[in-house]
Amino acid sequence: MSGSVRSACCIFVLGLLLSALALQPAAHAADAAFTQFVASLWPEAQAAGVSRATFERETRGLEPDYKLPDLALPGRPVTGARGQAEFVQVPADYVKESNIARLGAEGQRLMQKYRAALDRIESQFGVPGTMVLALWGRETDFGRYTSPYDTLRVVATQAYVGRRKEQYRTEFILALKILDEGTVSRKDFRSSWAGATGLTQFLPSDYYGHGVDLDGNGRADIWHSVPDALASAAKQLADKGWQSSVRWAYEVRAPANADCTLGVPEVQRPIGEWLRAGYTPVGGQKLSAAEQAQPASLLQPEGIYGPSFLTTKNYFVIKEYNFSDLYVLFVGHLSDRMVTPQPFATPWSASTQLRTTSVEAMQKHLARIGLYTDKIDGKAGMLTRAALGAYQKSAGLKVDCWPSEAVLQSMRTGR
Fold this sequence. Notes:
This protein is mostly helical. Helix content is 52%, strand content 5%.
């Protein structure tokens, strides 16, 4: 290596070191501010019943995790949860048949293992045992998946610099309360990046709102006790309005003249009315008069392609557990597969999903022309798909309610 090159390399390395040293005080200042923020929450923790000893022990050395999604850091773009599978995968990949079949078979075995607890759960809360097993299977693969984050660190960071600071301020206090009560150790108190913890993934506030001690040992332990976790999931569904003896949805075949823009929660009709309009239950199943009287909404996750469903109130109750339509389809279908091992009658069709930025561009265009009033979030949910269908009608395009490059190009060229 020549002397000039060696000198240039040394200068470059020295520059990197100086830059790193220059950044350290700012990082230390930020961490000091975080420590001060956490300390300022002691009065709220004390009011919630947290002991001073627990507060000091659990917050000592606590550091923020600035790599989490959904943060609003000064000088940086807001970090959204762009990578969530529910919003970036096509339905065939998310509701993957091989995965559903595996979990369904495992669920059948667990149904027998926990039969006594599941019978009590269904009797007490009106929620089928297969449904809470499906939630457990989807959330943590029946307990095989270990959440990667320290719950307290997650909720503290989100309370400090998250987009939903006030919500997570409460979650932080309640997380401390959980630790203070000794129901779970800090080592086992693991969560998702959003702070959901336990076998069935509850936020700390969910734990206090819906936690159930089904096994009778004096504490609701959603981290180690399967009966407690499943009963807590059932209570959460019941508290959100679950209706016993009502299916979550019915798969149907849509008529050739079906209007996919009707696929929004606001358009509710008795199931019998949908049937008279040509929507036919798959497999030749006959619906009782009580079932036909139930109000339902149309759901077409791939627009006019792929399966169609008539969704009941219980569908939207599951959606309060996780807002994604694909999540609800996964859980509902998995619940069914534990009883009847049949895949959806109509196969999925879409092979590609537009990038989040492209769907955002569509939503912004739809909002500008008055067809869309919901969040600009890059997620092609029910309202976005219906708005796309309305745009396709106005632009003289094929109406399929599915976000495609062709529709995006039409919007860009002003057609």
